[in-house]
# Entry
Amino acid sequence: MKVRLKIWRQPNAAAPGRFETYDTPDLNPNMSFLEMLDVVNEDLTARGQEPVAFDHDCREGICGTCSLVINGKPHGPHRGVATCQTYMRSFKDGDTIVVEPFRARPFPVIKDLIVSRKAFDKIMQAGGFISVRTGAAPDANSLPVPKPAADEAMDAAACIGCGACVAACKNASAMLFVSAKVSQFALLPQGQPERERRVLRMVQAMDEAGFGACTVTGSCEAVCPKNISLDFIARLNREYARALLKGG
Amino acid sequence: MNILRALFQTTLGRKYLMAGSGLILFGFVVGHMVGNLQIFLGPAVLNRYAHFLQSLGELLWVVRLVLLAMVGLHIGAAILLTLENRRARPLAYEGGGAYGASLASRTMIYTGLIIAAFVVYHLLHFTVRAPVDLTPHDLATMKTTLDGKEVHDVYRMVVVGFQQPLVAAFYIVAVSLLSFHLGHGVAAMFQSLGLRNRAWNPAIQRFGQVASWALAIGYVSIPLAVWLGLVK
# Structure
């Protein structure tokens, strides 16, 4: 199969970008979207042109490095998968596919399809951790955690921090990401000592980075490769109100 | 952190203000509809209810000022948030965007501003009784006697007002947009206040849909009844 790609090219953060159209070489439909880009890049390199820069790492859907907005949807046409697990068989021979970087003021383009997601790191540095005294491993079950709380914390912790929620949201809001990170700690006993301080600081870092507010459109949930639920945003709203009322 | 500062300056705080003021305004539109539907019980009932509201005196003004404050908060927060949200996405997507977002959720600011414009007109029409209804009638002089007292003939004001097709059409468009606005807004209000979880979400979504449809049907029934001559 062959497809036509309309790809965003931008030499660096300061220079303006524009779309370039490329016809791919012959592709195997079982290639992942990233493998398809590898093939396109080999072809570009062979022809003496600059390859397309894009983010990737584990290519098995767990690291959160790959990004891309494919035909207007972050991570491509399917639900619950990242770009690395989107395969060319999901497209038709001869399709034109628009490939863009995540668009958000806090995620500036570094080059072509690569954006800086440092804003997420700043939010994590502000409170996305627990302070524990390390040492010998504690006895199993010495800290009782109810099964429903453990399950929900695991659902929240499934967030790989890829930023698709921000990319999809019409407001470029980071609420789904922040809510998952706040919830995974708030649900567990280890997260209690810093519970209030954490949510206040992470929301502050989120606002300072320039992310938008939540309009409850549900776009984030719809594109999340880990199916993080909008229920966590309600939990974040609850946690923040609780922290404000307790005086932080 | 200072609670007031957080309420007015953070994204989450502003959403609390949106949702809280929205909740009170939602309560008002429900109450207002129930009050208005008394038109189907005849002139005496509606005029007695209207006179009762008018005779509340200072209390009426407390209610009015609270509602006005809520409208101010709701619109003020909406405008601030919309500007911030637009700044956060400097360049739109070529391939479309807002995947999975309903039309209502993407147009809240527009439906809201049209409703606000209608509210101004509606107040001029029936509360100030200014000559804005395209009729030769003067609503301010429409009086009737009730239990021996002279009171405003609200029943006739409504009938005369809605006999003007343009006035009734604007009303129907505005309440339909209100229903559309609340079709997203009611459920979102629970979300923004943190009052949602896996167990309650289906009920909250259903409540939002039922409430917004009930409001549309209730409000639209009045000009329709006037047009069809069921209320005259």
Residues 195-209 of chain A form the longest helix (15 residues).
